[in-house]
Amino acid sequence: MSHQEPFGARLRHAMDTRGPLCVGIDPHASLLAAWGLDDDIKGLETFTRTVVEALGDQVAVFKPQAAFFERFGSRGVAVLERAVAELRAAGGLVVMDAKRGDIGSTMAAYAEAFLHPDAPLFSDALTVSPYLGYESLRPAVDLARESGSGLFVLALTSNPEGAEVQRAERADGRTIGATMLGHLARENAEAAPMGSFGAVVGATLGDLSSFDLDINGPLLAPGIGAQGATPADLPRVFGAAVRNVVPNVSRGVLKAGPDAGALRAAAARFADEVRQAVGG
Question: How many CB atoms sit inside 10 A of residue 191's CB?
Fold first, then answer.
């Protein structure tokens, strides 16, 4: 089924050529208002089209948050479908932030919705939740491998509530978060230049030296910009794994809109700051 080279290889190339940055596309009501747009389907369409046209040929990775499109029903999902197709046509990689997680045939259906090449929402990667047990994700892992797509598994998230699950210890003394990282390292074994199965690890978490982040795969790092982390924080948080970090900035870039030139300048500034911080 594979119609493209593996996601990890495409991601490495995109970050090396366009800069190590992921821009989140999060059209929540307050951001639409800041752009002078109404919180309706027309506002959503205008916002999304502006971001796609301004940044599609510049930024390496885009992370649309599915919920902000789904809240408008089928017309919102149609806007998302067009955005995904247009971003990919412009050379950007799309990580669909849907955080799907289920079991059996339902997990397989979620995977088909985003990772099958014939699906209207076919994306380069999908965020997934492993907290029904890592192996519950197997249908998504298998389909991603077949289609040349990738996954980002929630491992050490930046929200305070996450710690009660992710930092909990198993009977063998390992935390749940560390266990998820270990599973991903096995999925990525021997992949070059980088595996396709990544982890979501918050950039706001401080010292993570007690976790082995060397999973030979990407680390999607939300929290840069409005949430308080800066590109300069990345080496301290991620240590030797910093070159595989995909820093996500949403409001930090999007607040520069609706002017296309200002959006492009903001994205370029963040990408340059990250490149300088990680030595890439």
Answer: 15
Mean pLDDT for the stretch of residues 155-163: 94
Residues making up the chain, counted from first to last: 280
For residue 139, whether the previous peptide bond is cis, meaning omega lies within 30 degrees of 0, is: no
Task: Look at residues 1, 2, 59 and name the one whose alpha carbon lies nearest to residue 25.
Answer: 59
Q: Which of 42, 63, 99, 255 is catalytic?
A: 99
Instruction: Kindly report the average pLDDT of the chain as a whole number.
Output: 96
Reply yes or no on whether 42 is catalytic: no
274 three-state secondary structure: helix
DSSP secondary structure string, 94-134?
EEEEEEE---HHHHHHHHHHHHSTTSTT--SEEEE--TT-G
Q: Read off the pLDDT of residues 60-114 as tens digits, 9 standing for 90 and up.
A: 999 999 999 999 999 999 999 999 999 999 999 999 999 999 999 999 999 999 9
Residue 161's pLDDT is: 96
Task: Give residue 226's pLDDT band: very low, low, confident or very high (50, 70, 90).
Answer: low
Q: Which residues pair with 127 in a beta bridge?
A: 152
pLDDT digits (tens, 9 = 90+) for 238-275: 999 999 999 999 999 999 999 999 999 999 999 999 99
Q: How far apart are CA 150 and CA 152, in angstroms?
A: 7
What type of residue sits at position 133?
A: G
Give Cα separations from 196 to 84, 125, 225 (angstroms): 19, 9, 26
258, 14 contact by CB (below 8 A): no
How would you write 130-180 as a 3-class SS string? CCCCHHHHHHHHHHHHHHCCEEEEEEECCCHHHHHHHCCECCCCCEHHHHH
Single out the residue of 227, 222, 226, 229 nearest to residue 206, CA to CA. 229
pTM for this predicted structure: 0.97
Q: Answer left, alpha or beta for residue 75, where phi above 0 means left and psi between -120 and 50 means alpha.
A: alpha
